[in-house]
Predict the 3D structure of the following.
Amino acid sequence: MIGTSKERIAKLMKQLGIKAAATRQHQVTTDSNHRLPIAPNLLNRHFSPPGANQAWASDISTISTQTGFLYLATVIDLYSRMIVGWSLSGSLKTPLIIDALTMARTRRQPPTGLVIHSDRGSQYASALYQKTLKNYGMVCSMSSTG
C-alpha cells in the first residue's frame, strides 16, 4: 500500500494538472449590530398559525455567481409554507425586502394585522421598512439568531 500525505496528494494533483475546489465564501446578510429599534418577538417560535395570511416570515439568502453575489429576499406564509413574495438584487439594501413584501401583499391581499416575522437585521429594522409595514397594516415581529 502506498502511503498518502498532503505532500504526496499535492504532488500527484500537480502532475495531473488538477486543483482542489476552492471553499465557498460565506456572505453575511444579517447586520444586527445597529442602534435601530427592535420589534418584540410576537411569534416566540410558534411558526404554525391556524390559517393562511395570519403570519408571514421573511429572510434574505445569498446566491454565489461567477461575477459575485446576488441576494434573494423571500416572504413565506407560515401556514402553507408557500413563498408568497420574492425579490432578487445585487444589493442588500432595504428596497430588496420591500419589493418581496410588496409582491406578497399584492398577490395575497392579507387582512390588517398580519404579523410579519424576521431577524433583527438592519434592513428589517430600518425606518423605511417599518413605515412600509405600517402603511400596509402589518405588525412587525423580530427574533434573534436561532
Remarks:
- The two ends are 47 Å apart (CA to CA).
